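A reminder from the course coordinator: this example appears on the midterm review sheet, so study it carefully.

Given structure:
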């Protein structure tokens, strides 16, 4: 996969915060060497977060996010500040842009407190250093000038260092197979499948298989059983789409490992253990309960949509009850989770690990079970134990 084709969810998200007129947008433009943000002498020019996927040397593929001022005023200003703070849930590295000639304001100190609370590595970029005589860097601070370019390369190096420190090994399927193994992927193509392509988790699993010297064989669910008979030896692993979990499980001999793309995504995002424990709460769902179903992307819903149609129908059948369902998508996620008895998230392939974990932590803090599509469907179909036993769960 080329750097330019790296999915947004797999890129380091670098967000710039600060007061109005601190020079955030000018600094962003200088760092990216692009006119990414509109720059003006008037305070509050940036009214909504602006983000762009790009390559940032020496780091590589990133998403740069410019935000509105954290000291915005008025009713609209409050909404802009709220949008700015929502960006924290997806921020891997934060840059607080401050005026070098001023001491930190209460708003800036509160922002730093938010970084620390969320364990987001941050740098204080003391901008407009060309107008400042006293330039003594304190820990975590660096003097920069969007006008002259002073400190820009050093700032980029510091951002890259923070990003590398936060990187961890991504576990998808590479540790489950060895060179020469055959992995069968069952990918149904129906009205909800994207035209002319396969979905991102399927692409990522195929690439990971190839990167580890194994062989990927891809088929639809109707071709799966005939394919198994044709193979000279049993596959090392079978991965299927959640919506055909039950069918594929019946057709897969017990001595062949089986899981789903959604379960692999939960593992990659770092919440599979929580997802497994929370899925078992489905047994306790009653008609008076409310379930929140979250989709990380904003694709057009189809009549066979798994999140809004198939999953609710399966839950009603399994529980013999009629719970209420609420649906959110994209960046929408309720601040108040108290009305819900269970949260079921998609695989999260289109949002960052930090954002998924942030939502999971919000659910944990509110005492609400948090699982995902594939894990829930495995439990509903009575195959959860089989689907996760290879992970020691």
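Designed residues:
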């Amino acid at each position: 996969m080329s750097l330019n084709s790296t999915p947004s969810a797999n890129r380091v998200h670098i967000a710039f915060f600060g007061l109005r007129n601190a020079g955030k947008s000018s600094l962003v433009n200088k760092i990216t060497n692009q006119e990414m943000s509109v720059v003006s002498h008037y305070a509050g020019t940036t009214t909504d977060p602006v983000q762009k996927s790009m390559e940032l040397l020496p780091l590589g593929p990133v998403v740069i996010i410019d935000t509105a001022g954290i000291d915005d005023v008025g009713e609209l200003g409050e909404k802009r500040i709220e949008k700015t703070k929502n960006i924290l849930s997806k921020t891997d590295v934060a840059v607080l842009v401050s005026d070098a000639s001023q001491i930190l304001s209460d708003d800036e100190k509160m922002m730093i407190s938010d970084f620390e609370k969320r364990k987001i590595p941050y740098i204080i970029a003391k901008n407009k250093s060309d107008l400042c005589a006293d330039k003594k860097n304190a820990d975590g601070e660096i003097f920069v000038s969007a006008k002259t370019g002073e400190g820009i390369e050093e700032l980029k190096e510091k951002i890259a260092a923070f990003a590398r420190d936060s990187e961890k090994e991504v576990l998808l399927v590479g540790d489950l197979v060895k060179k020469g193994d055959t992995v069968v992927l069952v990918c149904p193509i129906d009205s909800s499948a994207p035209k002319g392509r396969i979905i991102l988790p399927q692409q990522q699993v195929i690439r990971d298989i190839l990167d580890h010297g194994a062989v990927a064989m891809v088929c639809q669910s109707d071709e799966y059983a005939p394919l198994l008979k044709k193979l000279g030896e049993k596959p090392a692993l079978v991965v299927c789409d959640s919506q055909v979990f039950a069918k594929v499980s019946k057709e897969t001999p017990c001595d062949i490992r089986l899981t789903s793309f959604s379960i692999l995504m939960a593992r990659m995002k770092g919440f599979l253990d929580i997802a497994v424990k929370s899925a078992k709460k489905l047994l306790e769902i009653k008609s008076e309960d409310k379930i929140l179903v979250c989709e990380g992307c904003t694709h057009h819903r189809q009549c066979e949509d798994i999140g809004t149609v198939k999953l609710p129908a399966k839950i009603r059948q399994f529980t013999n009850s009629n719970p209420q369902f609420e649906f959110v998508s994209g960046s929408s996620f309720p601040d108040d989770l108290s009305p819900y008895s269970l949260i079921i998230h998609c695989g999260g392939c289109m949002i960052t690990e930090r954002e998924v974990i942030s939502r999971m932590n919000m659910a944990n803090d509110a005492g609400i079970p948090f699982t995902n599509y594939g894990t829930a469907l495995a439990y509903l179909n009575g195959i959860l134990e089989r689907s996760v036993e290879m992970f020691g769960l």
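The first strand starts at residue 12 and ends at 18. The two ends are 31 Å apart (CA to CA).
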